[in-house]
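Design a sequence for this backbone.
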């Protein structure tokens, strides 16, 4: 993706455990923390707390404030999932326990007082920051109020368990509580300034963006410029028809923003819809807790592959392009779909030609597969260690009606490259040189009149395509998955099929539909993929094949606005971190000195 902190944010997001596990953990850990805290005071301080204090400490300090906050947040902040609320409570509970351990090492009453109030302030700030990021800055008034739940109950418990025994004047108590409110005000001020600076540069709210990504909202970025990108359509007909859309649009930037769900929406539309309104809304089904099936690690499967109905099917090819070609408005996917055309087809095709240029001087490390289809060329590329390419790197002087160029994007889904090839660079020139030479070789490939194909699209849990092509006795297997890169098990499955087929072309769609899948996916439904391959083999029959290109109606692509958005976010993330560190340092100085 090549987006620095945007990439880091994507990888940080993870699926929280199921709600019932978190609730049980909150109760169990409160007992553990209570025992450890009382034990710490008994071991490291001159006090000898009675074991009977364990229950009040566990319940009043480590349980009630966090359960109350976990239940209150979703009720005050509409749409905030309970599972997230409980995870935040678990995190805050652990932070408080760390402070309790630090407190057991305090060498005087004054330091103990400062540590206690620093812990209350820290919890308040953590809740404010997390809730603003995950729900938006526009709810800051509610967030400031509801975030007081944990520190407020802890302060009450503190005084109930002997907070007045420190012997401090009323002024010190008021001063400590005032410090909490001042720190919260300073944090909100920093967040508002950050949001204002990003919005003034990109007209996008930073917190609307992050909260939208976390909630999988579907929104337009209101950025970019109008363009009419080419939409190439690949089609195979063996009695049933496979239609594959290959728009010169990048399926990003992320989640429901812009074209992040482009590939899935087009696949859904080309297969007649999955049922419901997934194609229109790009929404993820949730239960009452706000958890998605992905969050719970569940997969929609009935023991067999859910396949496209009626024999006809559709899929998505990723072409070599960058995030500058991202859609700004998710609704523009309809215009790309309208540009999907019916190509002229032929049964005349060549055998698959494969060439690698990684060990040659003056060439980049790139491999091409290609075949002639009538007087046209279908070419698939894989650049080792390369994520994306500017659109002009390969196709600046090539007619889209004559060449369909596909980027396999088959890197490991969790350890993908972040190299982006810029048009006009030395690396781009080497890639272009290899591409042109490969086309010269492909032009010599002999056409024969016995093209055959079989295909199957599986829609069990994740969308995947299996397509088998046969030309002049050579059989080629395509395995495509609607993911951003391939999981190791898909790569292994593809390698196993190399013993059966003359060539195997695994590819992904480079989708950016789900931030949770990007961060967490470790395996795919290879059983469904293998069944799809078996059905594609059974479906193998004489066929016609072809592709065409057509310009879409005007859509908004991010273009250079994407760089402005990323640069602004990267710079201001650093500014926010520096401000938070400074705030915390000032708090320590304020309370201890």
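Sequence:
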């Amino acid at each position: 993706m090549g987006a620095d902190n945007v990439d880091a944010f994507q990888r940080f997001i993870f699926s929280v455990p199921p709600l019932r596990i978190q609730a049980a953990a909150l109760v169990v850990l409160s007992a553990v923390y209570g025992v450890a805290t009382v034990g710490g005071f008994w071991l490291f301080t001159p006090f000898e707390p009675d074991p009977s204090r364990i229950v009040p400490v566990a319940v009043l300090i480590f349980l009630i404030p966090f359960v109350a906050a976990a239940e209150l947040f979703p009720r005050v902040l509409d749409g905030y999932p309970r599972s997230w609320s409980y995870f935040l409570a678990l995190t805050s509970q652990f932070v408080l326990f760390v402070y309790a351990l630090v407190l057991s090492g305090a060498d005087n009453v004054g330091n103990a007082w400062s540590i206690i109030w620093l812990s209350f302030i820290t919890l308040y700030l953590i809740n404010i920051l997390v809730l603003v990021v995950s729900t938006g800055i526009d709810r800051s008034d509610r967030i400031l109020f509801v975030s007081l739940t944990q520190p407020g109950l802890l302060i009450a418990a503190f005084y109930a368990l002997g907070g007045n025994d420190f012997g401090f004047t009323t002024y010190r108590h008021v001063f400590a509580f005032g410090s909490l409110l001042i720190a919260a005000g300073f944090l909100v001020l920093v967040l508002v300034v950050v949001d204002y600076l990003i919005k003034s540069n990109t007209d996008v709210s930073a917190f609307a963006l992050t909260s939208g990504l976390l909630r999988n909202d579907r929104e337009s970025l209101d950025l970019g410029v109008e363009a009419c990108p080419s939409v190439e359509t690949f089609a195979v007909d063996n009695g049933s028809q496979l239609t594959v859309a290959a728009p010169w649009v990048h399926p990003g930037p992320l989640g429901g923003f812009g074209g992040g769900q482009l590939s899935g929406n087009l696949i859904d539309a080309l297969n007649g819809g999955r049922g419901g309104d997934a194609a229109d809304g790009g929404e993820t089904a949730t239960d009452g807790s706000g958890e998605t099936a992905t969050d719970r690690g569940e997969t929609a499967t009935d023991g067999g592959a859910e396949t496209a109905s009626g024999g006809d099917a559709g899929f998505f090819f990723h072409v070599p392009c960058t995030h500058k070609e991202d859609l700004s408005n998710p609704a523009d996917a309809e215009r790309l779909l309208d540009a999907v055309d019916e190509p002229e087809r032929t049964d005349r095709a060549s055998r698959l030609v494969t060439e690698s240029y990684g060990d040659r001087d003056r060439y980049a490390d790139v491999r091409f597969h290609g075949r002639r289809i009538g007087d046209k060329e279908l070419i698939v590329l894989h650049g080792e260690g390369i994520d994306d390419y500017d659109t002009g790197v390969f196709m600046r002087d090539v007619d889209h009606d004559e060449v369909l160029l596909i980027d396999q994007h088959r890197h490991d889904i969790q350890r993908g490259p972040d190299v982006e090839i810029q048009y006009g660079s030395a690396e781009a020139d080497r890639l272009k040189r290899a591409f042109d030479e490969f086309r010269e070789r492909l032009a010599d490939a002999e056409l024969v009149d016995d093209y055959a194909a079989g295909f199957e699209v599986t829609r069990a849990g994740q969308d995947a395509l299996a397509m088998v092509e046969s030309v002049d006795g050579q059989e080629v297997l395509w395995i495509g998955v609607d993911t951003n890169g391939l999981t190791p098990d898909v790569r292994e499955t593809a390698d196993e099929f190399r013993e059966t087929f003359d060539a195997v072309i695994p590819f992904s769609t480079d989708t950016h539909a789900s931030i949770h899948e990007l961060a967490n996916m470790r395996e795919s439904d290879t059983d469904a993929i293998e069944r799809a391959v078996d059905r594609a083999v059974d479906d193998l029959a004489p066929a016609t094949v072809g592709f065409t290109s057509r310009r879409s109606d005007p859509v908004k692509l991010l273009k250079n606005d994407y760089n402005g958005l990323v640069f602004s976010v990267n710079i201001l993330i650093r500014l926010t971190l520096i401000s938070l560190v400074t705030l915390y340092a000032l708090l320590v100085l304020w309370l201890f000195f």
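The first helix runs from residue 5 to 12.
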